[in-house]
Amino acid sequence: MKYLPVTAFLALGVIWGSNFVYMKLAAELISPAQIVLLRVASGFLPLAIYAYFQGALKLAHLKHTGHFVVMSLLATVIYYYGFAKGTSLLPSGVAGALSGAIPIFALLISMLLPSGEAVSIKRLLGLAAGLSGVILIARPFSGEAAATNVEGVIYMVSGSLSVGASFIYARKYIVPLNISSAALTTYQLGLSLIILCIITDYSGMASINADLHAAAGVFLGLGLLGTGLAYLIYYYLIAQWGAVSASSVTYIPPVVALLIGSILMGEDIGAIEYVATGLIVIAVMLINQKTHNTVTRPMPSKQLTPEEQ
To answer: Do 273 and 31 touch, CB atoms closer than 8 A?
Structure first.
Protein backbone atom coordinates (compact mmCIF):
# COMPACT_ATOMS: atom_id res chain seq x y z
CA MET A 1 0.00 0.00 0.00
CA LYS A 2 2.89 2.40 0.62
CA TYR A 3 3.61 2.50 -3.12
CA LEU A 4 -0.01 3.17 -4.04
CA PRO A 5 0.25 7.00 -4.05
CA VAL A 6 3.30 6.86 -6.34
CA THR A 7 1.51 4.43 -8.65
CA ALA A 8 -1.58 6.66 -8.67
CA PHE A 9 0.60 9.72 -9.37
CA LEU A 10 2.23 8.12 -12.41
CA ALA A 11 -1.08 6.69 -13.62
CA LEU A 12 -2.72 10.11 -13.47
CA GLY A 13 0.08 11.68 -15.51
CA VAL A 14 -0.28 8.97 -18.16
CA ILE A 15 -4.11 9.24 -18.19
CA TRP A 16 -4.07 13.01 -18.70
CA GLY A 17 -1.21 12.79 -21.20
CA SER A 18 -3.03 10.19 -23.33
CA ASN A 19 -6.19 12.31 -23.63
CA PHE A 20 -4.86 13.99 -26.76
CA VAL A 21 -4.39 10.84 -28.82
CA TYR A 22 -7.97 9.85 -27.97
CA MET A 23 -9.22 13.23 -29.15
CA LYS A 24 -7.15 12.92 -32.32
CA LEU A 25 -8.59 9.52 -33.18
CA ALA A 26 -12.15 10.65 -32.51
CA ALA A 27 -11.71 13.87 -34.53
CA GLU A 28 -11.36 11.77 -37.68
CA LEU A 29 -14.96 10.56 -37.24
CA ILE A 30 -16.97 13.11 -35.29
CA SER A 31 -16.90 16.86 -34.58
CA PRO A 32 -15.03 18.45 -31.66
CA ALA A 33 -18.36 19.43 -30.03
CA GLN A 34 -19.51 15.82 -30.18
CA ILE A 35 -16.22 14.68 -28.66
CA VAL A 36 -16.74 17.04 -25.74
CA LEU A 37 -20.35 15.92 -25.25
CA LEU A 38 -19.40 12.23 -25.14
CA ARG A 39 -16.45 12.97 -22.87
CA VAL A 40 -18.50 14.89 -20.34
CA ALA A 41 -21.36 12.38 -20.44
CA SER A 42 -18.97 9.47 -19.77
CA GLY A 43 -17.05 11.29 -17.03
CA PHE A 44 -20.00 12.75 -15.17
CA LEU A 45 -21.45 9.50 -13.81
CA PRO A 46 -18.48 8.23 -11.71
CA LEU A 47 -17.96 11.68 -10.21
CA ALA A 48 -21.66 12.04 -9.39
CA ILE A 49 -21.71 8.61 -7.72
CA TYR A 50 -18.60 9.44 -5.72
CA ALA A 51 -19.98 12.81 -4.60
CA TYR A 52 -23.33 11.25 -3.66
CA PHE A 53 -21.81 8.56 -1.45
CA GLN A 54 -19.53 11.16 0.11
CA GLY A 55 -22.65 13.12 1.09
CA ALA A 56 -21.26 16.15 -0.73
CA LEU A 57 -24.36 17.05 -2.76
CA LYS A 58 -26.76 19.43 -0.99
CA LEU A 59 -30.03 21.05 -2.03
CA ALA A 60 -28.81 24.24 -0.36
CA HIS A 61 -26.15 24.53 -3.07
CA LEU A 62 -28.82 25.25 -5.69
CA LYS A 63 -28.81 28.92 -4.75
CA HIS A 64 -25.32 29.17 -6.26
CA THR A 65 -26.37 27.72 -9.62
CA GLY A 66 -25.44 30.93 -11.46
CA HIS A 67 -21.81 30.57 -10.38
CA PHE A 68 -21.83 26.89 -11.34
CA VAL A 69 -23.08 27.77 -14.82
CA VAL A 70 -20.22 30.23 -15.33
CA MET A 71 -17.72 27.59 -14.21
CA SER A 72 -19.35 25.05 -16.51
CA LEU A 73 -18.85 27.32 -19.50
CA LEU A 74 -15.32 28.48 -18.68
CA ALA A 75 -13.82 25.35 -17.15
CA THR A 76 -15.53 22.66 -19.20
CA VAL A 77 -17.50 23.61 -22.33
CA ILE A 78 -15.19 26.24 -23.86
CA TYR A 79 -12.04 24.72 -22.39
CA TYR A 80 -12.72 21.17 -23.62
CA TYR A 81 -13.94 22.40 -27.00
CA GLY A 82 -10.83 24.52 -27.55
CA PHE A 83 -8.61 21.53 -26.81
CA ALA A 84 -10.67 19.12 -28.92
CA LYS A 85 -10.69 21.50 -31.90
CA GLY A 86 -7.02 22.34 -31.48
CA THR A 87 -6.09 18.66 -31.30
CA SER A 88 -8.02 17.99 -34.50
CA LEU A 89 -5.75 20.49 -36.29
CA LEU A 90 -2.42 19.61 -34.68
CA PRO A 91 -0.46 16.41 -34.04
CA SER A 92 -1.72 14.96 -30.76
CA GLY A 93 1.75 15.20 -29.21
CA VAL A 94 2.03 18.89 -30.05
CA ALA A 95 -1.44 19.56 -28.68
CA GLY A 96 -0.50 17.74 -25.48
CA ALA A 97 2.66 19.81 -25.19
CA LEU A 98 0.62 22.99 -25.51
CA SER A 99 -1.71 21.83 -22.73
CA GLY A 100 1.16 22.37 -20.33
CA ALA A 101 0.91 26.10 -20.98
CA ILE A 102 -2.37 26.44 -19.06
CA PRO A 103 -0.72 27.96 -15.95
CA ILE A 104 1.15 30.43 -18.15
CA PHE A 105 -2.04 31.89 -19.59
CA ALA A 106 -3.77 31.72 -16.22
CA LEU A 107 -0.96 33.81 -14.73
CA LEU A 108 -1.10 36.22 -17.67
CA ILE A 109 -4.82 36.83 -17.09
CA SER A 110 -4.30 37.28 -13.37
CA MET A 111 -1.42 39.73 -13.87
CA LEU A 112 -3.60 41.88 -16.13
CA LEU A 113 -6.22 42.31 -13.40
CA PRO A 114 -5.95 45.30 -11.04
CA SER A 115 -5.59 43.09 -7.97
CA GLY A 116 -4.06 40.08 -9.68
CA GLU A 117 -0.85 38.13 -9.17
CA ALA A 118 2.28 39.93 -8.06
CA VAL A 119 4.92 40.34 -10.75
CA SER A 120 8.41 38.99 -10.03
CA ILE A 121 11.50 38.45 -12.15
CA LYS A 122 11.05 34.67 -12.03
CA ARG A 123 7.45 34.93 -13.12
CA LEU A 124 8.28 37.31 -15.95
CA LEU A 125 11.04 34.97 -17.13
CA GLY A 126 8.62 32.06 -16.90
CA LEU A 127 6.00 33.97 -18.85
CA ALA A 128 8.53 34.87 -21.56
CA ALA A 129 9.81 31.28 -21.80
CA GLY A 130 6.31 29.84 -21.97
CA LEU A 131 5.08 32.24 -24.64
CA SER A 132 8.26 31.57 -26.65
CA GLY A 133 7.49 27.86 -26.51
CA VAL A 134 3.95 28.42 -27.77
CA ILE A 135 5.20 30.58 -30.65
CA LEU A 136 7.82 27.97 -31.56
CA ILE A 137 5.11 25.32 -31.83
CA ALA A 138 2.88 27.61 -33.91
CA ARG A 139 5.71 28.36 -36.37
CA PRO A 140 3.71 31.12 -38.09
CA PHE A 141 6.34 31.61 -40.82
CA SER A 142 7.00 27.96 -41.63
CA GLY A 143 5.23 27.72 -44.99
CA GLU A 144 2.22 25.65 -46.07
CA ALA A 145 1.54 24.12 -42.66
CA ALA A 146 1.62 27.49 -40.93
CA ALA A 147 -2.11 28.25 -41.29
CA THR A 148 -3.16 24.94 -39.73
CA ASN A 149 -0.52 25.22 -37.03
CA VAL A 150 -1.56 28.74 -36.10
CA GLU A 151 -5.29 27.91 -36.12
CA GLY A 152 -4.72 24.85 -33.95
CA VAL A 153 -2.56 26.82 -31.51
CA ILE A 154 -5.19 29.58 -31.36
CA TYR A 155 -7.83 27.03 -30.32
CA MET A 156 -5.50 25.51 -27.72
CA VAL A 157 -4.67 28.97 -26.36
CA SER A 158 -8.38 29.87 -26.31
CA GLY A 159 -9.08 26.78 -24.22
CA SER A 160 -6.20 27.66 -21.90
CA LEU A 161 -7.40 31.25 -21.53
CA SER A 162 -10.93 30.05 -20.76
CA VAL A 163 -9.88 27.65 -18.04
CA GLY A 164 -7.41 30.27 -16.76
CA ALA A 165 -10.26 32.78 -16.46
CA SER A 166 -12.29 30.17 -14.61
CA PHE A 167 -9.62 29.90 -11.93
CA ILE A 168 -9.74 33.65 -11.35
CA TYR A 169 -13.53 33.48 -11.16
CA ALA A 170 -13.39 30.47 -8.83
CA ARG A 171 -10.92 32.19 -6.53
CA LYS A 172 -13.28 35.14 -6.10
CA TYR A 173 -16.71 33.54 -6.14
CA ILE A 174 -16.44 29.76 -5.68
CA VAL A 175 -13.75 29.18 -3.06
CA PRO A 176 -15.53 31.37 -0.43
CA LEU A 177 -18.58 29.08 -0.67
CA ASN A 178 -16.60 26.29 1.06
CA ILE A 179 -18.22 23.58 -1.03
CA SER A 180 -16.24 20.38 -1.54
CA SER A 181 -14.44 19.83 -4.82
CA ALA A 182 -16.37 16.59 -5.37
CA ALA A 183 -19.66 18.50 -5.29
CA LEU A 184 -18.39 21.45 -7.30
CA THR A 185 -16.97 19.25 -10.05
CA THR A 186 -20.21 17.24 -10.18
CA TYR A 187 -22.31 20.38 -10.55
CA GLN A 188 -19.89 21.74 -13.14
CA LEU A 189 -19.96 18.61 -15.30
CA GLY A 190 -23.70 18.11 -14.84
CA LEU A 191 -24.55 21.61 -16.03
CA SER A 192 -21.99 21.31 -18.82
CA LEU A 193 -23.73 18.14 -19.96
CA ILE A 194 -27.06 19.96 -20.13
CA ILE A 195 -25.53 22.85 -22.09
CA LEU A 196 -23.77 20.51 -24.51
CA CYS A 197 -26.90 18.44 -25.08
CA ILE A 198 -28.68 21.65 -26.14
CA ILE A 199 -26.03 23.19 -28.39
CA THR A 200 -24.42 20.13 -30.02
CA ASP A 201 -25.30 19.06 -33.55
CA TYR A 202 -25.85 15.28 -33.35
CA SER A 203 -25.52 14.70 -37.10
CA GLY A 204 -23.09 11.87 -37.80
CA MET A 205 -22.23 11.28 -34.13
CA ALA A 206 -22.94 7.55 -34.51
CA SER A 207 -19.88 7.41 -36.79
CA ILE A 208 -17.74 7.02 -33.70
CA ASN A 209 -18.95 3.42 -33.48
CA ALA A 210 -17.28 2.63 -36.81
CA ASP A 211 -13.87 2.51 -35.12
CA LEU A 212 -13.58 0.50 -31.91
CA HIS A 213 -10.34 2.23 -30.89
CA ALA A 214 -11.81 5.70 -31.37
CA ALA A 215 -15.02 4.79 -29.51
CA ALA A 216 -13.10 3.25 -26.61
CA GLY A 217 -10.84 6.30 -26.57
CA VAL A 218 -13.76 8.71 -26.16
CA PHE A 219 -15.95 6.74 -23.76
CA LEU A 220 -13.26 5.05 -21.69
CA GLY A 221 -10.09 7.07 -22.27
CA LEU A 222 -11.45 10.62 -22.30
CA GLY A 223 -14.63 10.14 -20.31
CA LEU A 224 -14.40 7.39 -17.70
CA LEU A 225 -10.62 7.58 -17.18
CA GLY A 226 -9.56 11.06 -18.32
CA THR A 227 -12.42 12.94 -16.70
CA GLY A 228 -14.13 10.77 -14.09
CA LEU A 229 -11.47 8.48 -12.63
CA ALA A 230 -8.69 11.05 -13.09
CA TYR A 231 -10.28 13.47 -10.66
CA LEU A 232 -11.00 10.71 -8.16
CA ILE A 233 -7.31 9.75 -8.29
CA TYR A 234 -6.40 13.39 -7.85
CA TYR A 235 -8.61 13.67 -4.74
CA TYR A 236 -6.77 10.64 -3.38
CA LEU A 237 -3.35 12.19 -4.03
CA ILE A 238 -4.43 15.40 -2.33
CA ALA A 239 -5.43 13.44 0.75
CA GLN A 240 -2.16 11.50 0.78
CA TRP A 241 0.40 14.16 -0.16
CA GLY A 242 -1.29 17.54 0.00
CA ALA A 243 -2.22 19.81 -2.88
CA VAL A 244 1.24 21.29 -3.53
CA SER A 245 2.97 17.94 -4.01
CA ALA A 246 0.07 16.48 -5.95
CA SER A 247 0.04 19.46 -8.32
CA SER A 248 3.43 18.40 -9.70
CA VAL A 249 1.60 15.71 -11.67
CA THR A 250 0.83 18.42 -14.22
CA TYR A 251 4.44 18.27 -15.47
CA ILE A 252 3.92 14.73 -16.79
CA PRO A 253 1.10 14.99 -19.41
CA PRO A 254 2.96 17.17 -21.98
CA VAL A 255 5.89 14.73 -22.03
CA VAL A 256 3.59 11.70 -22.17
CA ALA A 257 1.59 13.24 -25.02
CA LEU A 258 4.76 13.95 -27.02
CA LEU A 259 6.07 10.41 -26.55
CA ILE A 260 2.74 8.80 -27.48
CA GLY A 261 2.41 11.01 -30.54
CA SER A 262 5.95 10.35 -31.71
CA ILE A 263 6.43 6.65 -30.84
CA LEU A 264 2.94 5.13 -31.01
CA MET A 265 1.22 7.39 -33.54
CA GLY A 266 4.25 8.02 -35.74
CA GLU A 267 3.63 11.77 -35.80
CA ASP A 268 6.23 14.07 -37.31
CA ILE A 269 7.47 15.71 -34.14
CA GLY A 270 10.83 17.38 -34.50
CA ALA A 271 13.45 19.05 -32.35
CA ILE A 272 11.56 22.36 -32.35
CA GLU A 273 8.55 20.75 -30.64
CA TYR A 274 10.74 19.15 -27.98
CA VAL A 275 12.56 22.43 -27.34
CA ALA A 276 9.21 24.26 -27.14
CA THR A 277 7.88 21.67 -24.67
CA GLY A 278 11.02 22.09 -22.57
CA LEU A 279 10.50 25.86 -22.51
CA ILE A 280 6.88 25.40 -21.41
CA VAL A 281 7.85 23.01 -18.59
CA ILE A 282 10.61 25.36 -17.41
CA ALA A 283 8.16 28.25 -17.57
CA VAL A 284 5.64 26.45 -15.35
CA MET A 285 8.39 25.56 -12.87
CA LEU A 286 9.47 29.21 -12.67
CA ILE A 287 5.89 30.39 -12.27
CA ASN A 288 5.16 27.84 -9.54
CA GLN A 289 8.36 28.41 -7.58
CA LYS A 290 7.22 31.52 -5.76
CA THR A 291 4.06 30.56 -3.92
CA HIS A 292 2.70 27.50 -5.70
CA ASN A 293 -0.58 29.33 -6.31
CA THR A 294 -0.68 29.22 -10.08
CA VAL A 295 -3.56 27.38 -11.69
CA THR A 296 -3.10 24.33 -13.90
CA ARG A 297 -6.19 22.12 -14.07
CA PRO A 298 -9.94 22.60 -14.23
CA MET A 299 -10.75 21.95 -10.59
CA PRO A 300 -12.89 24.55 -8.87
CA SER A 301 -12.00 24.20 -5.20
CA LYS A 302 -8.99 25.64 -3.43
CA GLN A 303 -8.41 22.72 -1.09
CA LEU A 304 -8.31 20.13 -3.84
CA THR A 305 -6.71 21.74 -6.83
CA PRO A 306 -3.21 22.34 -8.15
CA GLU A 307 -4.47 25.54 -9.73
CA GLU A 308 -4.98 27.18 -6.39
CA GLN A 309 -1.66 26.07 -4.91
So the answer is: no
